[in-house]
Write a structure and sequence with these properties.
Layout (H helix, E strand, L loop, with lengths): L1 H4 E6 L2 E6 L10 H17 L2 E6 L10 H4 L4 H19 L5 E5 L2 E3 L1 H8 L2 E5 L3 E3 L2 H4 L7 H9 L1 H10 L3 E2 H6 L5 E3 L4 H13 L3 H15 L3 H16 L2 H11 L11
Parallel strand pairs: 2-3, 3-4, 4-6, 5-7, 6-9
Antiparallel strand pairs: 1-2, 7-8
Bound molecules: 3-methylmercaptopropionate-CoA (MMPA-CoA) (1HE).
3-methylmercaptopropionate-CoA (MMPA-CoA) binds next to α3, α4, β5 and α6.
Length: 258
């Protein structure tokens, strides 16, 4: 059943996870969330990085509004907390996630993308938070993650006015880090995921788990924690081998930007 709603493939060390409910524009139902939870766990076990994309014409139309109409207040809380837990498995899990975005990236779809570490949008992608128009609020972590990515003022604009932002603007707004031609986001995301998969797993773990936490700390606390994370990673056997490879001239040199 879960496989119907979420596809799972592997390309070498990269897991490729697809939202597969195109007839409902990949709207996130309870079953989709549970299927995604399984895929996230599996990717963490089997791969060194992951790509997340949407089957069909859109990345994701957000919360399944048909299901949501019927919930009681406390069911709504539990549902939102479940989204938080599943998205936290992406954001603060064990491997880097790259989302490939096209078409609608709206509401809970944008919240999901915001939980990934890198966002690649093709020029068909459009971003919106129509919660205000639907009489609801973000519940998938957007008030924290989207507000931090783009700033409270821009998120407020999206929510109050229903403003729809294209891919270029989304890059300027820091909602995405890469923009590609239509249809090319998934290949670019895979390329980036492969690069990240080639890093030391401990460094990747530190990046995805330490950086957001340090961002939540005072500067002094952050610097203190940074020293421990730095020392822990730098004294690992893998770091020693990689540093030695560089010093011996066996590691690739950095290139200039294209
Ligand atoms: C849906 C959903 C959905 C489509 N829940 N069923 N999200 C929104 O407010 C976005 C609502 N969706 C749209 O604005 C449009 O569907 C799209 C711009 C994404 C795509 O348009 P289009 O013309 O390609 O498709 P469509 O004809 O609107 O939709 C196709 C079907 O998908 C149709 O069902 P059908 O049975 O009539 O074929 C739609 O009802 C269905 N569909 N989107 C349920 N979201 C944790 S809090 C997060 C809060 C939010 O995410 S709020 C934002 C919700």
């Amino acid at each position: 059943m879960a496989e119907d709603l979420i596809s799972f493939d592997r390309d070498g060390e990269v897991a490729i996870v697809g939202l597969r409910r195109p007839e409902k524009r990949n709207a996130i139902s309870d079953r989709v969330i549970e299927a995604l939870a399984l895929a996230v766990e599996r990717a963490g076990r089997e791969a060194k990085a992951a790509v997340l994309f949407g089957h069909g014409e859109h990345f994701c139309a957000g919360l399944d509004l048909a299901e949501h109409v019927k919930r009681s207040p406390i069911e709504g809380v539990h549902n939102s907390r479940r989204w938080h837990a599943v998205f936290a498995g992406i954001e603060r899990g064990t491997i880097p996630w790259v989302s490939a975005l096209h078409g609608a990236v709206v509401g809970g779809g944008l919240e999901l993308a915001a939980a990934t570490h890198l966002r690649v949008a093709d020029r068909t992608a459009f971003f919106a938070l129509p919660e205000g128009q639907r009489g609801i609020f973000v519940g998938g972590g957007g008030s924290v993650r989207i507000a931090r990515l783009t700033g409270v003022a821009r998120m407020t604009d999206l929510m109050l006015t229903g403003r729809v932002v294209g891919a270029e603007e989304a890059e300027r707004w820091n909602l995405v880090q890469y923009v590609t031609e239509p249809g090319a986001a998934q290949d670019r995301a895979l390329e980036l995921a492969r690069i990240a998969a080639g890093n030391a797993p401990l460094s990747n773990y530190a990046v995805i788990n330490a950086l957001p936490r340090i961002g939540d700390m005072s500067a002094d606390d952050g610097l203190f924690v940074e020293s421990f994370v730095a020392s822990f990673t730098a004294t690992s056997p893998e770091a020693e081998a990689r540093l030695r490879a560089f010093l011996d001239g066996r590691a690739a040199r950095l290139g200039r930007p294209a």
